[in-house]
């Protein structure tokens, strides 16, 4: 039943489809969690996101060597990663993650973001 699916094509034959799907789910959950903590100003979440993005790009290289027809997906993933990494390391973002800037905070309102202690 799953012999001709995309997941079966990209899964490592030594570990199987189920493990590949589980690993992908954990990676996506980690990306979502890091995004949620980035909204709170946690710099460690930004670093985690960068590492996970690098692992994803390396995974796309491996997938490209095994399958045909995923060039568009790999190109989209690389462009998305480049844009997001550019945005995450702009001076405004650096100020936000360092806790210096009160981006989007109205005058007279204290900043309620958590700071790394």
What is the overall shape? elongated
Integer tally of domains: 1
Percent range for helical residues? Answer: 55-70%
Mean pLDDT score, rounded?
78
Count of extended strands? 0
Structural class: mainly alpha
Q: What is Rg?
A: 18 Å
Q: In words, what does this structure look like?
A:
With 117 residues, this protein is an all-alpha fold. The chain has one domain. Helix content is 67%, strand content 0%. The chain has five helices and no strands. It is elongated. The mean pLDDT is 78.
Outline of the structure:
The protein has 117 residues and is mostly helical. Helix content is 67%, strand content 0%. It has one domain.
How would you summarize the topology of this molecule?
Layout: H1 6-10, H2 17-39, H3 43-66, H4 71-88, H5 91-98
Helix pairs in contact: 2-3, 3-4
What brief labels describe this structure?
117 residues; mainly alpha; 5 helices
């Amino acid at each position: 039943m799953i012999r001709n699916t995309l997941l079966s094509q990209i899964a490592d034959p030594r570990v199987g489809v189920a493990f590949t799907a589980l690993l992908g789910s954990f990676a996506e959950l980690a990306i979502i969690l890091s995004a949620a903590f980035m909204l709170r100003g946690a710099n460690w979440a930004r670093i985690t996101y960068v590492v996970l993005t690098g692992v994803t790009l390396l995974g796309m290289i491996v997938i490209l060597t095994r399958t045909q027809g995923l060039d568009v997906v790999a190109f989209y993933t690389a462009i998305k990663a480049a844009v997001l990494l550019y945005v995450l390391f702009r001076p405004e973002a650096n100020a936000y993650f360092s806790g210096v800037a009160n981006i989007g905070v109205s005058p007279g309102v204290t900043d309620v973001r958590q700071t790394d202690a």
